[in-house]
Queue: 2 jobs
Job 1
Amino acid sequence: MKYIYKLVCVFCAIGFFTSCDDILETDSELVMYEKDNTLKNPTDSVYSVMGIIGKMQNIADRVVLLGEIRGDLLKTTDAANSDLKRLADFDFSQENKYNSVSDYYAVINNCNYFLHHVDTTLERRGHKIFKAEYAVVKAFRAWTYLQLAQAYGNVPLITKPLLTEIEAREAMNQQRTSLADICAYFINDIAPYADEELPRWGGIGSHDSQKFFIPVKALLGDLCLWAGRYEEAARWYHDYLSDRDEPITLGSNNRSYWYNTEFKGLVAGYSVVSNTERLSYIPMEARVFDGVVSDIPNIYNSTRENNYYYQVIPSAAVKTLSASQVYCMEYKTDTETDTLYAPTTGFNDDMMIGDLRLYSLYSLNAVGGQDEYSEYSNMRQNMGKITSSGITTYRRTMVYLRYAEALNRAGLPQSAFAILKYGICADNIALYVDSIEQDKAADLIDFDKTIFTKEGTTGIHSFGSGDSQANAYYVMPQPADSLATYQDTVDYQMPLVEDMIINEMALEGAFEGYRYYDLMRVALRRGDAAYLADPVSKRNGETDDNLRQLLMNTNNWYLPLP
């Protein structure tokens, strides 16, 4: 996609950083703009925003890898590069190519330059030319800061363009800002632009340019979720999903399932990179000489470029989690309905036990006749979780799961659980959420009845575990004995429902870059380092005592700043 690369060269604010020795190292060969230079030409809008997207390509792979390799769902292989292995081991005693904070600040500095120099008053035919692009860049900056703070913890908050080395040094020596304060700042910064329409540039290469842009309401939900503002988070997610112009529903067409009662035929229609599932992404180049090409396919899959030596494999932990689910089939005839459960033995592949999402999106096959002394691996691995065309920033099912997380923490566990098991619509709410919670939730769980119907809504657990609405083993947690008050029951349920949501995030979002940060977010919320340390240290099936001890100190959760 040479278009991106060419446009990057057009827009270059100073502050593209190239070294790990210093957070900022200015590069004299880059194009510099005058301090008072103003972006006034309508074409500046496209060129500059695409230039920012081009810089986001440099962090795209890292967003996935930093959020996944340090979690518990992947294991590095002997073929993995040394930096990847050290990343998985939380060993930062040496320089690591995945620890390049300067690339994040390159995006941020470009955003800052645009926001401070674009002429937002410019109008044509009564329309403010740069209004949509201004909102887009605000969202790019907020999203990049969220990724930066998740990875590094306390970081310098810089909102003005840095045009000299002196300015850069002074900015980076300022007091660093916490993740919570980063979130608070950008909630206020982007909330006024929540309803701004996206630019309409049409197709760029083979891409729909509208999917390059971060959905502001979903991002506001994430920021509020990390900030502990759960009711606000739920509202932003709800409003994004229920937008009357483009509502985002969860239908039953995207799932893996057994199509017969003998559990011998598997239908794998499940996809995480379909046009309907993927809401936004960072476009990547198809060829190296066009710009930045994603290396994730060569890390995850067997390719000619890596001589078919993949660098990561699914961990014992994700296989165990997947196999521990109970697959349910609701078998209906003209006269009766029966509930069947898949067996847990007798399959050719153990990954066919339980939830089917892992099995449907992962394969490992031997190549017959391969010379054992060949430079090529005789095994072929494929993970259908990524695509070389772009790195996903938002997809619909994960937004629903974060919405469930926010609802639960807002004191609405029944509503959150309904998203997992039944699907969120008026009919299901009436059946599975009691009147007290419905009154408390009010419009937070109110969706258009003509669009969000029972027939067109699916519980997310059904994507891999069958007809979850009929599954007697997948139930809302209930205390063994009656508790003193209604709120006591809610307080009992919330952490247990949260555990179910986090498990579902793992089943649904495995290998996509979410897992480590999902564990981190809950661990910080609960003040319990073990919530992260335990699963990560057990990724291989047995506890790595040294790794667990390391991760029980929250300071070790973050990459070190230079």
Note: Residues 1-34, 122-127 have pLDDT under 50 and may be disordered.
Job 2
Amino acid sequence: MSSPNSELVFAPIGGVGEIGMNLYVYGLGDERERTWLIVDVGVSFASEEHLPGVDLILPDIKFLIEERRNIAGIVLTHAHEDHFGALLDLWPKLKVPVYATPFTAALFEAKRLGEREAPEVPVKEVALGSRFQVGPFDIELCSVAHSIPESNALIIRTPHGNVLHTGDWKLDPTPIIGVPTDEAKLRALGDEGCLALIGDSTNAVREGRSPSEVDVAKTLAELIANAPSRVAVTTFASNVARVRAVAEAAHAAGREVVLVGRAMERVAQVARETGYLDGIREFRGIDMYGHLPRDKVVAICTGSQGEPRAALARIAADEHPEIGLSKGDRVIFSSRTIPGNEKAVSKIVNGLIDQGVEVITDRTHLVHVSGHPRRAELEELIGWVRPQLLIPVHGESLHLSEHAKLARSLGIQVGMCRNGDLVKLGPGDPGIVDEIPVGRVYKDGALLVEENSRAVVDRKRLSFAGIAFVAMAMTEKDQLASDPEIELVGIPEKSIGGASMLEIANDVVMETFETLPKPRRRDPDAVEESIRRAVRGALAQNWGKKPLVYVHVLIV
């Protein structure tokens, strides 16, 4: 029996005001002690331009670490990186039960085995459409169409009302793989009563409905059938329906399929093990690519978002050891460029065109559809479920705002929140009642570092203005034991006036040292700081940028 002050609360730790890094929590109990349910543990991908050297961005879970004894479990809606990609790194800090459907569990295990020294994470498999208990939360999976198998919305039943957490979804009556969104179950929830809908906002700015995967498959079949030479298709490795459509089109055209890229191979293996590629001939090894006739091969490649280490980037740069393209070949981008990746994708497209390769994108052909709902689909879901409250999530500010406007136009109360806002869903009037600590953590190589870590801050500065190293040896009598050693990294060789930057730095070091008062000269720290300021100022005056400067004084 719940306490008289018990409440149902919701908080996004990541995924609101941004695309990616999805991590949401639900709490049951009074404000002194709540039991928590975590939905998804995702990542965002770092930009080399803004975060050089950072591989991934993860949500900061300091709040959950403090509350870990009260966490009932983690439920994964599906196997996209922005929903489960942080689990390997963050689960050891929590060590709570994890629930996932068979495909998601299998793909997570394959991902884990591919990581060096990855922790053992016990995942409890739950059947599609099943209903199970996670602490005080009564969870029912509702199958939804998306761009990866076994995507689920969650129906969360509590003493204070029912919540629909949509995850990523769309309305596609012919999704190729899996089942369409379970309209009957969602209508039944509406009849039962829905307190709150926590909903995907990604495509809330787009009118109408998203086309079906079947429509894309028809276009791909035509483009592969009429291609005069080699064909390469790039798409998200996780889009098994798209991989299957390409494979079926290739085989219908008398072509063999070669998979290119580790992620593509991993997902395809899991898809076969779980039955989603049943009836599709085995793919050929990458070593067979060069031995197949040019009009008898289709390569399915990673790298649709311009990732510099992915297969397509290496092919476009003519640096792939086994896969090459040439004049008359065709590359199909069966994907949409994620905002922020435009420059990287354009570089690949231009590299391919320079090789004489024909490039086809969604600008001219229906070769990609989104896995997220447009406005007509959002409206239809709201009509089925009839929630008392809608909270837009999974989107940038524009997407959230448009989702909210749509809901209000349908007479639905809207609750807007941001990462860290603790929202009371019931009983009584909903609203923000508290704030929990949130932030970002960076995956830097094998390490997790705080977003304000010196390494990350310095690296950004280095990428902008370089660094100067000064090493000095002093005697105990406060004299130089030898000439200073100076090294400039990432700094131009010549100044604005044409003088040597190294000589400028050397001159200012000597001049500053010689003019230092004796009391300051006796203090190595004071010498270091004086030299640092002087060198930085001189380089800035002769360059226009202020580099990092490190000075080391050794007493000999």
Note: The domain at 466-555 is CATH 3.10.20.580 (Ubiquitin-like (UB roll)).
